[in-house]
Design goal:
Blueprint lengths: L1 H8 L5 H12 L1 H15 L3 H4 L3 H33 L4 H4 L18 H16 L1 H20 L5 H24 L6
Helix pairs in contact: 2-8, 3-7, 5-7, 5-9, 7-8, 7-9
Length: 183
Amino acid sequence: MDALLFFPMIEFNSVFSQSLIIWLATGFGTLIVILAGFFVLFHNDTYLHKENPIMMAKTKLFELVTVFGSVVLSWAIVVLLKWIVSAPRPFLYFDTINPLFYYGGYDSFPSGHATFFSALATALWFYHPRMGVVYFVCALVIGFARVASGVHFPIDIVGGFALGILTTYVIHHALKIAHVVKN
């Protein structure tokens, strides 16, 4: 099943489409992380607690903890899982695959990029649902580009998404149980 989804996604022959896929798979993520950082730090949430600046600062702090904690914990878990699973990348599994770029070896599952960006999108969604949806779309684009470039199977992306979303959900709800986060 993975191969049936994989092969049609890597059939890009033009220099432009290949260059775009490489940028989406490698450089686009850096841009959206920087933009997310600026958004979280500088977005004005005065509608939450405009009459109480201390509560506003507390809410912003826990938003930062959720976002930063989610991506860091997700990344740590994915590194451990990659080491345990040791799944080959498509270009190692199929000798006929020529990836658009080489990345890693026996560390395909789960996708670290899909894990990281789905954790980021989920964390943003808890505090800013519309921005979270935008970041989920960005995460999907990055995941598609990682498959289209030949460095991941579709199941690697799905597994990464599940891990990132689950980790962020657990962190956010643990903070809610501790009565630290109100929403």
